[in-house]
Structure formats: structure tokens, C-alpha cells
Amino acid sequence: MGKINVKTAAVLNARPEDLYATIADYRNTHPRILPPQIFDLQVEKGGYGEGTIHRFKTRVLGVEQSFYQITRELEPGRVIVEKDIEDTPQQLATSFTITPVENGQKARVEIATVMNASPGLQGLIERLIFATYHPRMYRVELQNLERVAQERSQRASETAQH
Asked: Are 79 and 93 contacting, i.e. CB atoms less than 8 angstroms apart?
């Protein structure tokens, strides 16, 4: 059983701390960054960063899957990882890595997923689907992340002025 690796990155016009906070807040802002293929995010425990336990569903090519994951902050403020809690054959893990650029006014954000491929023909199909669809989904997620983080920053500025 081999590994499937997919990643997409972009420099986003938002401050690293706003991007990180947007990703880490599973109750309020994280649901707003998800592409349409990822839906029904339900927080079971926590809600912000480390230790958050959540469920969500994906639908790709008409096939719906459910996931049960825990969030780990490998490097608080920089790296968040969502990984399967249960011992599934896939052992899916998705990381968000934020690297400040332009003196911290922007950040490069990488979304990367690693999972075990199934054996045989099913594994080949999984590889093709992941290579084709996940980069597109992640580009939408990055665009949403930029927008929601900018909104968050704007609200914080307005609150600070009052």
C-alpha cells in the first residue's frame, strides 16, 4: 500500500496570524473556508485548535465519505494538522502550513494531504481522483481562506477603533 500525497499552496493577502486563527476556529470561521465538496462540519469537542474533535463529509464524483478527525497544532501559529482518529485503512492527514512573507503582511499557505492508497485498481483510481480533484478543491479553499481572514482582520480593526 503506497502513499498518496497532494498539496497546493498560494501566497495570500492576509496576515499570518489572521490566516491561522481562521483555520483554527472550527466553530466559526473554518466552516466558511471549505469548498462545496467538503461539508457538514460538526465539532464534537473543543472548537479552537489543539484537541478539537470534528466530523465532516466529502462528496467527490458523487461518492460521499465521512471522516472523524482530531486537530493537532504541531507548531502553534504555523502548522495545524487534521488526522483520522479511528484506525482507518486510509489514515488521512491534512496539514495547513503558514509561512509569513513580505514582513508578515502576507503569508504562503500550503494545504497538504497524505493518505494510504488502497491496493490494486482501487488505489490507482484513488490516486487519479486525488491528483485531479484535490488541488482544485484546495485552490477554492485557499481563496475562501484569504477572504475570511481579511474579513476577520477588518472586524478586529473596526473593534479596536471603537
From this structure: no
Residue 105: Cβ-neighbour burial (10 angstroms; 0-12, 13-18, 19+): exposed
**Predicted local confidence at residue 130, as pLDDT:** 86
Q: Are 69 and 84 in contact (CB under 8 A)?
A: yes
Residue showing cell 484506525: 87
What pTM does this model have?
0.92
Walk me through the domains of the chain, giving residue ranges and CATH numbers: 3-161 (3.30.530.20)
Q: What would the grid cell of residue 16 be?
A: 499570518
- What pairs with residue 53 in β-bridges? 45, 70
Q: What are phi and psi of 3, to 5 degrees?
A: -100, 145
The answer to whether residue 94 scores a pLDDT higher than 70 is yes
